[in-house]
Amino acid sequence: MTKDMTKGTPFKLILGFSIPLLFGFLFQQFYSLVDTLIVGRYLGVEPLAAVGSTSSINFLVIGFCLGVCTGFSIPVSHKFGAGDYAGMRKYVANCAWLAIAFAVILTTITVALCRQILVAMKTPDNIIGGAYSYIVVIFIGIPATFLYNILSGIIRALGDSKTPVIFLVLSSVLNVGLDLLFIIYFEMGVAGAAWATVISQGVSGILCLLYMMKKYEILHISRDEWKPNGHMMASLCNMGIPMGLQYSITAIGSVILQSAVNTLGSDAVAAVTAAGKIGNFLACPFDAMGATMATYGGQNVGAGKLDRILQGLKSCILLGACYSVISFVIAFFLGEPLAGLFVKEKTPQILSDVRFFLIMNTLFYFPLALVNIIRFMIQGMGFPRFAILAGVFEMLARGLVGAVLVPRFGFHAACLGNPIAWIFADAFLIPAFRHVYRKLKSQFYTSKNTANNVTNN
Question: How many folded domains does the chain comprise?
Answer without folding.
Answer: 1
